[in-house]
Each structure stands twice: as structure tokens, then as C-alpha cells.
Amino acid sequence: MSDLPPAAARVQEALCAAGSEARVREMPASTRTADDAARACGVAVGAIVKSLVFRAGEAPVLVLTSGANRVDEAALGERLGLRLDRADAAFVREATGFAIGGVPPLGHRARMRVVIDRDLRGHPVLWAAAGTPRAVFPTTADELERLTGGTVAAVA
Fold first, then answer.
1. Angle at 49 between CA 146 and CA 115, to 5 degrees
2. CA of residue 124 relative to chain centroid, distance
């Protein structure tokens, strides 16, 4: 763990504390976007977990969606009974402790509501951001649910 950048090491610590056996990996190429991550991990873009932070007033809402999907925030907000707005980079960093392009599903500064794209269940192995634009970890849909306490829903 000590050779990981500090943000990625925080994610590894959060994984271990949650009882996960996943190991954070630093990739030689960027994993900042879903397409970049899919290339770096050698998987279909749908197996990449995009971590998107939205605002519901002043509260952050984390949506973990398949890299192949685009979140329909109006429809999702209606399902959740919230008005969702896209969060800017400063809000994302304040809410999570991580910069856009490396926001992991766990290890945030504060607890927040988490919604998990039901389409992620269609992939046996998923790859999620791990704190930096080059760090990822393997997981499954079931483990994401356990690690985050998230609610599974249609998000696209």
C-alpha cells in the first residue's frame, strides 16, 4: 500500500476496513474517463463504474453507473423524490475528498446517499475509480452494494 499515491492509499484503507479483499492498482495509462478506464483495464466500457456526484440542494448524491450509460438526472431525481443537479468540481472535492476523474465508490469525507445502476449487475467483474486518475480496483455489483449501502435503480 505504501507505494500508492495518498488518495489511492486512502481508498485501499477504506476497502480493507470494509472487509474487501480488492486491491487498488495503479495503471500505466489514464483511467480518468470510462473509455480510458476500459482500455487500461482491458474490459468493455459497460464494466467500468462511473462515480458521478450530483447535488440535491446542499446534499451530495453519488450515482455509480455503468460506463456505457448516461444518467438521466431528471428521471432519477423523480424516482428518488429529489431535484438532482450536476455538481461542480469544487462541490465534488468538498463532498468526497477526491477530484473528478478519481472519485471512488467509498472512502469519502462524509456519508452520502448512493444509487447504483442496475445495469452494473450484468458484468461479473467491475472496475471502479480508486482516488486518482490512474488508480482502479476490481469489484462486483454485489460488493458495491455491500460497501456503499447503495440502492439499486435504473439511472439511464
1. 55
2. 17
Instruction: Specify the pTM.
Output: 0.95
d(CA 34, CA 127): 10
Question: Sign of the CA dihedral 115, 120, 125, 127?
Answer: negative
Paired residues of 50 in beta bridges: 65
65: which 3 cell numbers? 453507473
Look up residue 5 and give its amino acid. Answer: P
pLDDT (tens digit per residue) in 128-151: 999 999 999 999 999 999 999 999
Place of cell 431535484: 83
State in Å, rounded, how far the first CA of the chain is from the last one. 35
> Which cell numbers hold the place of 123?
458484468
Q: What is d(CA 83, CA 138) in angstroms, rounded to the nearest whole number?
A: 32
Q: Are 113 and 59 in contact (CB under 8 A)?
A: yes
**Interior CA angle at 50 toward 59 and 155, to 5°?**
70
Give the span between the Cα atoms of 80 and 77, in whole angstroms: 5
Q: Report strand pairing: 48-56 vs 85-86.
A: antiparallel
